[in-house]
Write a structure and sequence with these properties.
With 353 residues, the protein is an alpha+beta fold. It is built from eleven helices and ten strands. Strands 7-3-10-9-8 form a five-stranded antiparallel β-sheet. The radius of gyration is 27 Å and the shape is elongated.
Amino acid sequence: MDLTERKKKILRAIIENYIQTAEPVGSKAVASTPGLNVSSATIRNEMADLEALGLLEQPHTSAGRIPSPKGYRIYVNELMDEYRLSVQETRRLNEALHLKMRELDQVIDQAGRVVSQLTRYPAFAMTSVSSRVTIQRFDLLMVASDSFIIVVMTDNNVVRNRLVRLPSDLSEAQLQMLNTLLNTTFTGLTLAEITPELMRVASHAAGEAYGLISLVVSFAIDVLESLEQRTVHTAGIASLLSHPEYQSLDRAVPLMSYLSGDPAQTRFPVPEAADPMEILIGPENVADALKDTSVVVASYDIGDGLRGVIGVVGPTRMDYAKISARLSYFAAGLSRLFGQNGLPPADDEPEQH
């Protein structure tokens, strides 16, 4: 969307004023913006144009306007200045990054709590497989004539095994034929691809042979499913109530219920590996419960094919520049922590801005 420079300055002034006040912004407030030098009458005309373009909304009959999700998107993509962390913020983030390395789930949970305290928004933290995981190799190891061990290795070097007992005997030659078929047919497939391939094989294999194939492939599916499962940790949900948008329980309760609900049912965005920071505004969120909120999320490398994901949920009127700067710094620090590359020294801090 092509906007004149004046419209961009006015849109930016309205959004930044609204972020600070949570009140509809009128032409007088915009006219007081340093460096704008535009009359109130001209500003009113430009505000009407911005509203017609869907970038502003008028919540009631007053002269004030508030940004729409579409307006916030233009602000985030084109108008927002990069936020520079202060000495105090960097020191606090570095102190928070000295997490005790315990079980992975405990570290992820603690990171979410820290981010919620730092941002004063509800935070979520989880792990995510960093790429499309597939089975790289099958190995079937004979134990006895009626039992063998299934060993599967994924392409991100996860190895799992299971002992299988059979109702009838199986020869070493039959086991090796099964091993060869599995490695030529079911390797390199994702979880979404492996089940249709099993159905295709079912139409060609004899009953007993298909039973053995299905037995091994079902274990491989269990392995892939376990790697795709995400444990979501949420923290600071009650902090929503400190924001004007959620003073009404009618607005606060549905979102708080969603954030505190079954982790298996919650749906949060996961940034692409090539773009470790993502901002989703209002209707851009997939989950209906998040349609009136914004989500800022960052990812970091855990190792062994896993990424950590950490983010905050809040009103669309959030300070995107400040929140994304803090999350980005914290995520980069967690990558260093898991990579054992150490944290920046205490005096390695930016200048105060």
